Amino acid sequence: MTTSKVYIETFWQIHRMIEEAGLQPGDRLPSERELADRLRVGRSSVREALRALELLGLIETRRGEGTFMKPFGDHQLIQLLGSFILQGNREKRDLIETKMFIERMCLQLACERLTDEKLEHIARAEHTYDLFFQRVVEATDNYLLLRIWLVLNDFFEHVYTLTLPSEFYEQMWTALQKRSCEEATAIYEQYVMQKMSKAN
Amino acid sequence: MTTSKVYIETFWQIHRMIEEAGLQPGDRLPSERELADRLRVGRSSVREALRALELLGLIETRRGEGTFMKPFGDHQLIQLLGSFILQGNREKRDLIETKMFIERMCLQLACERLTDEKLEHIARAEHTYDLFFQRVVEATDNYLLLRIWLVLNDFFEHVYTLTLPSEFYEQMWTALQKRSCEEATAIYEQYVMQKMSKAN
DNA sequence: GAAGTTAAGTGGTCAGACCAGTGGCGACCA
DNA sequence: TGGTCGCCACTGGTCTGACCACTTAACTTC
To answer: Rounded to whole angstroms, how far apart are CA atoms A81 and B10?
Structure first.
């Protein structure tokens, strides 16, 4: 009311600055020190504002290089999911259930849309669950879905570590190569869902 | 995997602390200085982590008083995020595709878990798409899924208005009453997906 | 007992220092 | 000439200590 918080003010000023300068994805923002200087606020306030912009997915910071506009029209609605974090086992169950459902959904979509190029990309992925599956989700060509999955996976990693045998990755890749939705789903259920049901 | 940035680590540590202490809405968190002391990081890092939690709607800070758990149910973030949406066609496609997929997922889950009480609740819902479907999603008993759907729906409403004939609601309710996943899915595809494919 | 004062604690902000990466520029060498 | 190496300026990341504005509660005073 009386004095609005500086970092909020700064947030909007930077946001306006981005709009007025017409910054495009990949473009660089002024350095934190210069922003602080220009807006006549402390660097810490600038940083708190930048954190918000980062969380919203508008910018990306790279140490030693600078702050950049993030690629893709990245409406970060999904971050809202963060509000679910309020404690409890029930939320964990919900998280696992939702994540598995979405992953199966992605497998289906991937089978429909998979290009040879994307297939190659998946093949080259390391045999860790998150890296492998990220490429599968990318193959769906649905950026929103990717965002949702990334958030779910991020939370998931703080709860469990999922390691699967090499056969899983090999069989899954074979199924994807054949674009066989049924086969991919079956493999997923056999390995992942079985393992997660035991973990509960 | 390993996040080198302190403020991200701190974010998760505070989050864990909230969980383990079982903090409820309205409860107070330790002061910034105490958190910094306890987690052995600088106060500025604590503040950047708190900013993130605040943006996610988990906490609320009151100058001179402290930091408190926030009651959930706040839509303020959605409004904030709303100012960032620059709707491209690709994003629309992703939104519609994802929302429809999730709704079908919810139909499946609802058929598995639907209680008579929830069924009644659905029956009493008005015949508007969002109100009807919200109750369906609620019937899945998965709060995370509900959160995701609410966000998707919120944005969806800024793009389209979906009106369906009464038959849809009646047929759907009949299918749910029978707990028939196949039937419900078929009705969904017949009415919703058909209509949306034309809208594109 | 009530009103006013004080002191301690809290979030908000700033300035300055240092660390750790990045990248460009110039000196040096083959 | 062409390449390489190393220096240095600049960037984000972090910490510290200081001060302000505000709240609360204990204390003093009438």
So the answer is: 19
